[in-house]
């Protein structure tokens, strides 16, 4: 069983009518609906309940999808540090929306502008680009 946690700010869906029309229940729930099957379980967390990102949740997460855009500074430092510690310890595998950073706006994790995912142990990236 693959255990996925999807984080989404859930702000655009509340404030932008175009986004709300596409994702009325939030992109986090659209991702959950699409990913969930017999081999994948999905939990969702939004900025509204970001404190639910606990050490226990991260310890029971194989893949963390981080969908952030406009409210990185709203993620409390203690939550960002929890995510950093979990990722740097090798679990969960982090995936972010393109062009975004994980919590802490690079305070805790560094990234390459053309990297599709973090390689936190080496602070390097893997890319198919030549």
In which range does the helix fraction lie?
A: 25-40%
Query: How would you write the strand order of the largest sheet?
Result: 2-1-3-4
Rounded Rg:
14 Å
The average pLDDT score comes to 78
Helices and strands, in N-to-C order? EHHHEHEHE
Ends: how far apart? 35 Å
- Strand element count: 4
Q: Shape from CA axes?
A: flat
Briefly note the structural class of the backbone. Answer: alpha/beta
Number of helices: 5
Main sheet overview? 4 strands, parallel
Strand content: 15-25%
Unreliable sequence segments: 104-130
Keywords, separated by commas or semicolons:
single chain, 130 residues, alpha/beta, four-stranded parallel β-sheet, 5 helices, 28% helix, disordered C terminus
Quick structural summary:
This protein has 130 residues and is of the alpha/beta class. It has helices spanning 12-15, 17-22, 27-35, 55-59, 77-88; strands at 2-8, 40-46, 63-67, 93-96. Mean pLDDT is 78; it is low at 104-130.
How is this structure best described in words?
The protein is α/β, with parallel strands linked by helices. It contains five helices and four strands. The chain has helices at residues 12-15, 17-22, 27-35, 55-59, 77-88, and strands spanning 2-8, 40-46, 63-67, 93-96. A four-stranded parallel sheet has the order 2-1-3-4, with helices on one face. Strand 3, helix 5 and strand 4 form a beta-alpha-beta unit. It is flat.
């Amino acid at each position: 069983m693959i255990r996925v946690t999807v984080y989404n700010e859930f702000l655009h869906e509340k404030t932008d009518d175009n986004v709300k029309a596409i994702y009325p229940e939030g992109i986090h729930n659209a991702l959950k609906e699409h990913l969930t099957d017999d081999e994948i379980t999905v939990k969702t967390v939004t900025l509204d309940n970001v404190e639910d990102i606990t050490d226990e949740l991260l310890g029971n997460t194989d893949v963390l999808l981080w969908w952030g855009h406009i409210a990185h500074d709203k993620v409390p430092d203690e939550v960002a540090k929890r995510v950093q510690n979990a990722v740097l310890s090798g679990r969960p595998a982090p995936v972010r929306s393109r062009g975004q950073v994980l919590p802490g706006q690079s305070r805790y994790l560094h990234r390459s502008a053309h990297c599709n995912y973090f390689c936190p142990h080496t602070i390097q990236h893997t890319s198919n680009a030549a």
